Amino acid sequence: MSQMLGPIHHWLYNQIKTVEDREVKVVKAFTEKYGVEVKELANDIRGEYGELKDDSALEDLIVNSHIHPWLEGAIDTAQTREAVIVKELMDKYNDQNLLQEIYQQHGAYLAKQSGEDITNNDLKTAFEALQNTLVERMPCDRLSQVIQDDSNKIVWRHNSRLHTEFWQKVDVSIELMHQLYADWIKGFMRTINPQIQHERKITNDYYEDIFTL
């Protein structure tokens, strides 16, 4: 199976690991503030919704599975579990400020890692780094598209069900999801270039991430 894996599969797997790493940071921060019961809560959720992949190599996880259904399932699991953990933490502790802080810090942390390979901090380069890091769905799903691509403005439009489907099915506030993801994106982009501005515009049929410089 490993001979059938290409760069795009590892690219998607790394995006899945981004979601899982963010989940780990959330659990760690809430555990430090509220105690070991947070870790126990997360373990129960992982037992129900799937365990973390940790540092496992993609080849070792695939074994005899078909790669595309496996990746689709892994994307579903990671994002659903993230939504459930956010829901349970909000229900129990109602600490949205801490959540927003963690999401923004995690975006900044990953941008610093990406920045080691970035030689130009213009808007296009920063946006490409974001696309390589933020999980969407399978590329063939075509749920996102760039509708404006200028040197000082990029508009990235998403089908309204992107990400939201996982949060809706576990009954989490979509407004909270948009806020947390916007915080994460802001932390990422401004770490690469503090002059980049980000706005998320939401409509019934789609939502847009608008970047200006």
Fold and architecture overview:
With 213 residues, the chain is of the alpha+beta class. It has one domain: H-NOX domain, CATH 3.90.1520. Helices cover 60% and strands 12% of the residues. It has eight helices and four strands. The protein has helices at 7-34, 37-49, 58-62, 67-93, 96-115, 123-133, 164-168, 174-192; strands at 144-149, 153-159, 197-202, 206-212. The protein has a four-stranded antiparallel sheet with strand order 1-2-4-3, covered by helices on one side. Helix 1 packs antiparallel against helix 2 (37-49) and helix 5 packs parallel to helix 8. The longest helix is centred in the first third of the chain and has 28 residues, at 7-34. It is globular. The termini are far apart. The model has no long low-confidence stretch (mean pLDDT 91).
CATH arch. level architecture: Alpha-Beta Complex
Largest sheet data: 4 strands, antiparallel
Q: Radius of gyration over alpha carbons? A: 17 Å
- Work out the count of structural domains: 1
Overall mean pLDDT stands at 91
What is the tally of beta strands? Answer: 4
Biggest sheet, spatial arrangement of strands: 1-2-4-3
Query: Which CATH class?
Result: Alpha Beta
CATH-defined fold name: H-NOX domain
Note the total helix count. Answer: 8
Strand content: 5-15%
Low-pLDDT runs of 5+ residues are: none
Assign an overall shape: globular
